[in-house]
């Protein structure tokens, strides 16, 4: 494609520059409007600058991709209601044999669940589970948060529904679900194992330290086993934690009981509970401003309290947990889809239990049916939408609460991105750059695959992985198609593998990384700040090694 006129090139670059800047840095000081509005802003500039016509803008929006994305999000909402992610939390903590065993479990569970439920969804629902389990076992959160983010990215590469860029590749390449899975699964499996090995090497000494039994018992009082496996999220909306959660209340109450200066009431049993229910956020603020740190962050605080304080906490632990669970139940019962299974309300009748059990079974059957349909080669978009509507019908009630959990902002972001990328393509700049690189990046040579992978890796971290796939996909496929049809499919799979694993390079490399970081920061009293540099130190070697060992295993069928 020839270069467009100079004016069109300049204006197209300006419009795409706004899109890129707001997609990568959504809170820039001079225009903090976020990624979704930024994508629409770039798209509108493309039309206003006449880089692309309004009709061409509409045509650039890929409806099959949006349909597939919408269907998978709705299915994820119903799976969350059917306690699928609660069972994943149970699997993480069931008969754990220490830090190394838990780290390996996090890698496997997050990888395989991401391949089926998308990496972003799994990071949303599993981050706080992992923080709680680490706290309960007196283990540092960093290894497990890195394991969750990196393994989710690697695992999501195995299927077309694992992440957004794979959705784009599957629709544009028309590679079936089965061929996609067979082509990348061996690389994904080895990549997850290698990534887990790298994590173990990095944190071997840290995970080998014997646990402080006193701290473990103290954490057990703060967070009972059922609390670890019963927290509920809304995966499709990728919503953040609210400030006044039941976990915060539990920790705040514990802090107040240990520090009389914070307790304004004389009766710590009844009046404190009432004040939390009425004005819980104020109490949490007071506990925070009082400088009280959780036991896991300060060993000196345990010494200060002494054995008497620990005994008192154990004696009062049951009432504290009872209040926190009651509050959590009252907050959750406001809507059926977020109702907690761990409730102190009157137990369901046998008929109601049977009805719920049958409904959950129906959700799992429909989901398995969707996966089987994808494997046999049915249209992916309509299969996902059909499964979503089947779940809506089986629920036999107004679907609005569930449909409101769908991340429509993500769908709008995709629409804006399609227009912005298509407009940038029409400037001729991507084609010109690709023409200069293409002779040296042929898919049928070792050097060509290495150069192509390097280009994808760098561009994915500069422009993000989905725009990279939109910019390079058709060009890489056309270059490989001149060799053979099988090489064309392999080129698409290489693009899927490298663009996905590239997300592990830095904290900004993928949305899953940012979700883990932000969810971990917002978890009060057991939160953790995963810094950019701590992720980069692990991300660079992991990304390079996993990418290299996976490339020879990618095959087209």
Keywords:
25 helices, 557 residues, mainly alpha, globular
Order of helices and strands: HHHHHHHHHHHHHHHHHHHHHHHHH
Rg (CA only): 25 Å
Counted by DSSP, the helix tally is 25
Largest sheet: none
* Distance between the amino and carboxyl termini: 31 Å
Q: Which structural class do you get from the secondary structure elements?
A: mainly alpha
Regions with little confidence, pLDDT below 50 for 5+ residues: 211-345
Shape: globular
How many strands? 0
Strand content: under 5%
Give the fraction of residues assigned to helices. Answer: over 70%
Main location: membrane
Domain Citrate transporter-like: 27-502
Keywords: Cell membrane, Membrane, Transmembrane, Transmembrane helix, Transport
Protein name: Citrate transporter-like domain-containing protein
Summed up:
By secondary structure, the protein is an all-alpha fold.
Q: Could you characterize what this model shows?
A:
The chain has 25 helices and no strands. The protein is mostly helical and 557 residues long. The longest helix is centred in the middle third of the chain and has 34 residues, at 299-332. The protein is globular. It starts with 5 loop residues before the first helix and ends in a 7-residue tail after the last helix. Residues 293-347 are annotated as: Disordered. Residues 27-502 form the Citrate transporter-like domain. Keywords: Cell membrane, Membrane, Transmembrane, Transmembrane helix, Transport. InterPro entries: Cit_transptr-like_dom.
List the SSEs and their pairings.
Elements: H1 6-24, H2 34-48, H3 54-60, H4 63-81, H5 84-93, H6 99-117, H7 119-136, H8 141-156, H9 164-173, H10 177-208, H11 213-222, H12 225-229, H13 246-258, H14 271-289, H15 299-332, H16 350-375, H17 380-395, H18 400-403, H19 408-426, H20 429-437, H21 446-463, H22 465-481, H23 485-501, H24 511-522, H25 532-550
């Amino acid at each position: 494609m020839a270069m467009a006129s100079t004016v069109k090139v300049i204006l197209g670059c300006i419009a795409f520059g706004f899109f890129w800047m707001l997609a990568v840095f959504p809170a820039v000081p001079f225009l903090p409007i976020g990624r979704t509005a930024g994508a629409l802003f770039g798209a509108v500039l493309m039309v206003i600058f006449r880089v692309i016509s309004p009709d061409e803008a509409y045509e650039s929006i890929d409806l099959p991709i949006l349909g597939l994305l919408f269907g998978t999000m709705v299915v994820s909402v119903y799976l969350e209601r059917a306690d699928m992610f609660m069972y994943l939390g149970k699997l993480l903590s069931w008969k754990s044999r220490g830090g190394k065993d838990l780290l390996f479990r996090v890698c496997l569970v997050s990888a395989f669940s991401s391949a089926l439920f998308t990496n972003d969804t799994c990071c949303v629902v599993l981050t706080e589970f992992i923080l709680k389990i680490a706290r309960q076992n007196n283990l540092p959160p960093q290894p497990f948060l890195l394991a969750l983010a990196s393994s989710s990215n690697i695992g999501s590469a195995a299927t077309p529904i694992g992440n957004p860029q794979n959705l784009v590749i599957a629709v544009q390449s028309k590679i079936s679900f089965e061929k996609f899975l067979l082509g990348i699964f061996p690389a994904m499996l080895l990549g997850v194992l290698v990534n887990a090995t790298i994590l173990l090497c990095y944190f071997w000494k840290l995970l080998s330290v014997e646990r402080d039994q006193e701290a473990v018992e103290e954490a057990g009082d703060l967070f009972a086993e059922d609390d670890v496996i019963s927290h509920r999220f809304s995966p499709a909306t990728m919503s953040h934690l609210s400030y006044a959660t039941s976990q915060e209340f539990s920790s705040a109450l514990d802090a107040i009981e240990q520090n009389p200066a914070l307790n304004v009431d004389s009766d710590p049993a009844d009046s404190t509970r009432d004040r939390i229910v009425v004005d819980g956020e104020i109490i949490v603020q007071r506990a925070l401003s009082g400088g009280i740190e959780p036991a896991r962050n300060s060993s000196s605080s345990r010494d200060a309290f002494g054995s008497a304080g620990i005994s008192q906490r154990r004696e009062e632990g049951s009432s504290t947990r009872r209040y926190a669970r009651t509050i959590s139940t009252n907050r959750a019962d406001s809507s059926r889809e977020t109702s907690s299974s761990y409730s102190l309300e009157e137990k369901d009748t046998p008929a109601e239990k049977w009805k719920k059990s049958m409904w959950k079974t129906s959700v799992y059957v429909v989901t398995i049916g969707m996966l089987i349909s994808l494997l046999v080669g049915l249209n992916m978009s309509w299969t996902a939408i059909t499964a979503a509507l089947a779940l809506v019908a089986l629920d036999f009630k107004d679907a609005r609460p569930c449909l409101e959990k769908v991340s429509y902002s993500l769908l709008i972001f995709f629409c804006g991105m399609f227009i912005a990328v298509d407009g940038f393509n029409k400037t001729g700049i991507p084609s010109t750059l690709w023409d200069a690189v293409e002779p040296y990046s042929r898919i049928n040579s070792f050097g060509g695959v290495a150069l192509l992978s390097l280009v994808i890796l760098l561009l994915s971290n500069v422009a993000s992985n989905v725009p990279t796939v939109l910019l390079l996909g058709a060009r890489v496929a056309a270059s490989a198609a001149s060799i053979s049809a099988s090489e064309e499919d392999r080129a698409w799979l290489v693009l899927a593998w490298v663009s996905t694993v590239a997300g592990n390079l830095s904290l900004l490399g993928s949305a899953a990384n940012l979700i883990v970081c932000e969810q971990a920061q917002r978890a009060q009293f057991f939160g953790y700040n995963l810094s950019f540099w701590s992720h980069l130190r692990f991300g660079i070697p992991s990304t390079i090694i996993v990418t290299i060992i996976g490339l020879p295993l990618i095959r087209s069928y």
